[in-house]
Design goal:
By secondary structure, the chain is an alpha/beta fold. The chain has 2 domains: 2-169, UDP N-Acetylglucosamine Acyltransferase, domain 1; 172-230. Helix content is 36%, strand content 14%. The chain is built from 6 helices and 15 strands. The chain has helices at residues 2-15, 22-28, 30-46, 50-64, 175-185, 199-227; strands at residues 67-68, 73-74, 79-80, 87-88, 93-94, 99-100, 105-107, 119-120, 125-126, 131-133, 137-138, 143-144, 149-150, 159-161, 166-169. The strands form 3 sheets. A 6-stranded mixed β-sheet has the order 3-6-9-12-14-15. It has a 5-stranded parallel β-sheet with strand order 1-4-7-10-13. A 4-stranded parallel β-sheet has the order 2-5-8-11, with no helix packed on it. The chain starts with a helix and ends in a 32-residue tail after the last helix.
């Protein structure tokens, strides 16, 4: 139990830079309190103590501003940041490592007693104010933009924005080599930023793809020259000096501290 709690606290700190300590997370995060209460309420619901489960979820809603139906199925390391106004319906299913921000609704579009709420895969992020409605499926690693209204299935790795929600970006097969190239040259790849259709990020993606292609072509040329009997001098490529990228910008000291 304590190992699971430590892992959960660690996952919260990774997703919220405003979290300064485990004690702060345990005592001052309403999203954490709401999920803890839901775990108990869900067990009571499965034991068919349904009035007691609903009462506990009602008290939790009153204390945290987060409404989670006791029957909702929630995976591990689920985090609700800020949390006020979040609504999760009865037949909603949420995978592991998902994140919801304030004002999110996982709602139904039918009054029939059937599966009528969304299913979220693993590692899904739903932005503030977004509404995901109906018995739809949101694939693993998908991103739902703030204030979007999603009423159709979302493929894995996609980014959805707008009303109604539309896919504006998809995960690409070139992502692994972009990450490797970015790591090689000393900074985190913009290629892994799938949260928004950023033209600058797209341009850097293209640069990383080009650099990867140049590396492959040079390797094939060197291999062909060696095969033909030519002696290739051993030339070591100098490592890029990227320490200055990590230095703090003095101008940033004059700005307000941001979360």
């Amino acid at each position: 139990m304590f190992t699971g709690l430590r892992n959960y606290i660690r996952s919260v700190r990774l997703r919220d830079p405003a979290a300064h300590s485990a004690w702060e997370i345990l005592t001052a995060y309403p999203g954490v309190h709401a999920i803890a209460a839901h775990r108990i309420a869900h067990r009571l619901w499965r034991w068919r103590l349904r009035w007691l489960a609903r009462l506990l979820s009602h008290i939790s809603r009153w204390l945290t501003g987060i409404e989670i139906h006791p029957a909702a199925q929630i995976g591990r390391r689920f985090f609700i940041d800020h949390g006020m106004g979040v609504v999760i319906g009865e037949t909603a299913e949420i995978g592991d490592d998902c994140t919801l921000y304030h004002g999110v609704t996982l709602g139904g579009t039918s009054w029939q007693k059937e599966k009528r709420h969304p299913t979220l895969g693993n590692n899904v992020v739903v932005g503030a104010g977004a509404k995901v409605l109906g018995p739809i499926h949101v694939g693993d690693d998908a991103r739902i933009g703030s204030n979007s209204v999603v009423v159709k299935d979302v493929p894995p790795g996609a980014t959805v924005v707008g009303i109604p929600g539309r896919v504006v970006a998809r995960a690409t097969e070139s992502k692994p080599h972009r990450e490797a190239m970015a790591k090689k040259i000393g900074f985190d790849a913009y290629g892994q930023t799938r949260d928004m259709p950023d033209p600058v990020a797209h341009a850097i993606d293209c640069m990383l793809d080009h650099m990867h292609g140049v590396d492959q072509k040079l390797e094939s040329i060197c291999a062909a020259l060696k095969k033909s009997g030519m002696q290739m001098p051993g030339v070591e490529l100098p490592e890029l000096e990227v320490e200055h990228l990590e230095e703090e910008d003095p101008a940033e000291n004059t700005t307000d501290e941001r979360k």
